[in-house]
Amino acid sequence: MQANLRQLLQTLDQATELSALQTSILALRDHFGVAHMVYHWVCADGGQFGCGSYPPAWVQHYVDQGYLRIDPVVAACFRRAQPVDWKTLDWSGKPARLVRAEALRAGLGTQGYTIPLHGPQGQFALFSITDTTDDPRWARFIDRHRRDLLLCAHTFNHRAIAIEAQRLPAPVKPLSPREVDVLTHLAMGLARAQVAQRLEISEHTLRAYVESARFKLGASNTVHAVARAVAGGLIVTGGTARDAPPLWPGRAAAAE
């Protein structure tokens, strides 16, 4: 490993605040000479934690439009453990083409490579790099730096988990089986009406279960409750090919 990269990773591994990860990821982006580098995770308290170099306006637009629910990169990474080269994904659908076109206009670049990160208690994060180089150069770049990028991604995730562990809430009260069912379905991305239909209960009854679960978990809203339930190992979201990953931007609209 190059001495400069080793030093950058040592600095990253000593980070004790989430803000320090932002400094590290920008330094790593410059080291690899790519257009953008990003790490994104949903914290146990329901907040979205991300660091990186994407334009803030694009990040906000992505969240506001709920693009995570239709982003082929996220869907692919949620279902697998291996890195994903964006060129290998299916961008033919209209929603996917929209995300791709707007990402290009925002300056993310024509190339992308994302490493999925699956941690304890359902933790899920993404580590992505993007650039504007041509296909042959991109292929050579990935082949040359694949191992170093994996090391960077897992070091970031390790530090984020360690830092987050210091912020975890106190142990929560146990949920009833029905409350677990409700939160599990919401975490899978279903709207309240869909959850009520699947569980064969009224939306009024569903709301009562949600409010009860929120109270037990000390959560400020539904997304917060689902996040705490996942972090505490109270629910497990396996997901399927058609299920969106839990607890990312865009989930709030369905859950609230």
TrEMBL record:
<keyword id="KW-0804">Transcription</keyword>
<dbReference type="InterPro" id="IPR036693">
    <property type="entry name" value="TF_LuxR_autoind-bd_dom_sf"/>
</dbReference>
<dbReference type="InterPro" id="IPR016032">
    <property type="entry name" value="Sig_transdc_resp-reg_C-effctor"/>
</dbReference>
<dbReference type="Pfam" id="PF00196">
    <property type="entry name" value="GerE"/>
</dbReference>
<dbReference type="Pfam" id="PF03472">
    <property type="entry name" value="Autoind_bind"/>
</dbReference>
<dbReference type="InterPro" id="IPR005143">
    <property type="entry name" value="TF_LuxR_autoind-bd_dom"/>
</dbReference>
<dbReference type="GO" id="GO:0006355">
    <property type="term" value="P:regulation of DNA-templated transcription"/>
</dbReference>
<dbReference type="InterPro" id="IPR000792">
    <property type="entry name" value="Tscrpt_reg_LuxR_C"/>
</dbReference>
<protein>
    <submittedName>
        <fullName>LuxR family transcriptional regulator</fullName>
    </submittedName>
</protein>
<keyword id="KW-0805">Transcription regulation</keyword>
<feature type="domain" description="HTH luxR-type">
    <location>
        <begin position="168"/>
        <end position="233"/>
    </location>
</feature>
<dbReference type="GO" id="GO:0003677">
    <property type="term" value="F:DNA binding"/>
</dbReference>
<dbReference type="InterPro" id="IPR036388">
    <property type="entry name" value="WH-like_DNA-bd_sf"/>
</dbReference>
<keyword id="KW-0238">DNA-binding</keyword>
